Amino acid sequence: MYYSRDNMAGLLRSHDINPTHQRIEIAHALFSRQEHLSADQVMAIVNTRHSETSKATVYNTLKLFLEKGLVREVIVDPSKVFFDPNTSPHHHLYEVDTGKLSDIDAEHVQISGLPPLPAGMVTEGIDLIVRVRRTG
Amino acid sequence: MYYSRDNMAGLLRSHDINPTHQRIEIAHALFSRQEHLSADQVMAIVNTRHSETSKATVYNTLKLFLEKGLVREVIVDPSKVFFDPNTSPHHHLYEVDTGKLSDIDAEHVQISGLPPLPAGMVTEGIDLIVRVRRTG
DNA sequence: CCGGGAGTTAGACAAAGTCCAGATTGCTGA
DNA sequence: TCAGCAATCTGGACTTTGTCTAACTCCCGG
User: Fold this and answer.
1) CA dist., res. B3 & res. B5, Å (int)
2) DSSP code of B23?
3) Is B75 in contact with B81 (CB distance < 8 Å)?
4) Does B81 contact chain A (CB < 8 Å)?
5) Is A64 helix (H, G, I), strand (E, B) or coil?
């Protein structure tokens, strides 16, 4: 199957990341379920059976994945960062009352009329977040 | 002049906020300079001469201003929330290396092709953040 | 002058994230 | 096989942002 731990090792290697046991577990947590997880949630998933991976390693690894372009950071909640295993261009729908975060495919979304950037600046990314709430 | 402390009292009253000394100072900090400030920065500004306003009051007041629609929350930095005295529709330009946050006028920006919302949901707001970095 | 409610306060607390020095791991070359 | 070494991992102390609470102050009506 696509998301086996063995394939994780390959995925990591192809992104120039030395595939250690902990890194494979963290990658597996993120990629086997296609969800947006916070560092906390990754910790919880990885350490379900018995404590295996320290907090420091989870944070280090997520930062490493970020640098290597394996995941994306999504900043929607003031209290925690989410990590998104989907790096293809897309936007986000955030349910403010439940904290649920889902993807909006970028394919049909058009953003036009943005002013030119100040000189000497490059775009690092454009984040579009639709904040929604349940009626009532 | 427009941003005197006296006018702050009027502004607060017109938004159904009891204008206390501390609230006027905080409003003045936000509206006299048209900048995006974090709670920390507001604290620092308000307490420059001598300590006048407690942390709790700054947070309470900013939350109150938010509820009353006097300011807007901008979530771009994973470590802190910015408060935006400009409530007219606009987007943001965030310089990731310096932390500087500025406005992009919404007038000419068009966002089209967003999928329909899930049933029973209302949009609370659409945040568009352009993250930029200095070349080099 | 007094009582009460709104507002403020200091400081304890919570949660997310960082940092560091020491311990582990897994090579590599002999 | 084994010592040496660099990379990685670890627990725990620490920092920062923000929340909570119980006591205090201020002001207003009577």
Assistant:
1) 6
2) H
3) yes
4) yes
5) helix
| Span A106-123, pLDDT tens digits | 888 999 999 999 889 999
- Beta strand residue intervals within chain A, DSSP E: 37-38, 72-77, 80-84, 90-95, 101-105, 110-112, 121-134
Q: Quick one: tokens of A72? A: 């994306």
ipTM of this predicted complex?
A: 0.90
Q: Are B23 and B17 in contact (CB under 8 A)?
A: yes
Collect all residues of chain A within an 8 Å Cβ-Cβ radius of residue B63.
none
> Could A118 and B131 be called an inter-chain contact, meaning their C-beta atoms sit closer than 8 Å?
no
Give me Rg for the CA atoms of chain B.
17
Strand pairing category for A90-95 and A121-134 = parallel
Is there a contact between A52 and A23 (Cβ–Cβ < 8 Å)?
no
* Pair of tokens at residue A115: 């002013």
Q: Give the model's pLDDT for residue B81.
A: 97
Q: How many CB atoms lie within 10 A of CB A124?
A: 14
Tens of pLDDT, residues A27-72: 999 999 989 999 999 999 999 988 889 999 999 999 999 999 999 9
Chain A residues with CB inside 8 Å of B108's CB? 113, 115
Distance CA A3, CA A12 (A): 12
Domain ranges of chain B: 5-83
Q: Which CATH architecture has domain A5-83?
A: Orthogonal Bundle (1.10)
- Read out DSSP for B27-91? HHHHHHTT--EEHHHHHHHHTSSS--S-HHHHHHHHHHHHHTTSSEEEEEETTEEEEES--SSEE
